[in-house]
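Hi Q.,

Before the meeting this afternoon, I wanted you to have the magnesium ion prediction in hand. No need to reply - just skim if you have a minute. The sequence and ligand are here:
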Amino acid sequence: MNTAISIDTPAHLQVDNITVSYNGTPALRQVSFQVPQGTRVAVVGPNGAGKSTLFKALVALLPLREGRIVIHGLPLGHHKECVAYVPQREDVDWKFPVTVMDVVMMGRYGNLGWFKWPGKHDNRIVAHSLDQMKIANLARVPIGELSGGQQQRVFLARALAQEPHILLMDEPFTGVDASTQEATLQLLDRLREEGVTVMVSTHDLNLANTRFDQVLLLNRQLIAYGDPTRVFHSENVVKAFGTHSLVLNGTNGIVVDDCCPPDV
Ligand SMILES: Nc1ncnc2c1ncn2[C@@H]1O[C@H](COP(=O)(O)OP(=O)(O)OP(=O)(O)O)[C@@H](O)[C@H]1O
Ligand SMILES: [Mg+2]
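Predicted structure with the ligand bound:
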């Protein structure tokens, strides 16, 4: 738990009343929250809750119908390179003819000036990122030939190469083995030491409950945001998932503390 964070810490990511729509139908409605620098946030909610939509809005891949996103006090767009995004694996065209090295170097593009080629410094950072994720041996391999866990590591290496202040990861724990999951969590620990803010969407409520500072519970609108023990209150869980069974059965080991009031 990150004890250094208090409500007085300035928010480095501020989301004010955003609505995001597809073809006129809102997928996220009037969502507001603030994330202090260095916080590790789990984004949870059922399928179709708008988790991926939120991440895409945070990197301006989707327009806002209303509201605003402020990063380090400036509107979205002023700090593109400081937000790294690891997409949900289904959202990636794995047939795209690029190698692992190419993908990781893409993490440096935001740091390069116009018409600049990657220099020695960029090559060093890319090599270090590949090493950190233990995929240096795969550098020349086309991404289409990788396993799911290896693909995950490539995207994490790309995110590392970007040297972000804010890292968004969409379902990095889905379909990966225990060692890739642990490598991802260790990476998050290292990033925490560097003060990087991390938002991770996951369906693993137990992980959200035990390994994150804050939980953001979504179901097309913000159901609750805050300390895991407060967010996983039965009322909130029912609002998001529409069922008591998660609460009663303790699915994934979730312990719902009924003593705390809902915290939105
Ligand atoms: N490109 C799109 N065009 C139209 N509707 C979309 C599009 N992408 C997402 N949606 C809709 O927006 C809603 C939110 O989708 P989103 O992918 O953000 O959910 P999610 O919480 O990430 O779900 P999952 O857990 O399945 O990944 C869903 O109803 C979905 O059908
Ligand atoms: Mg999704």
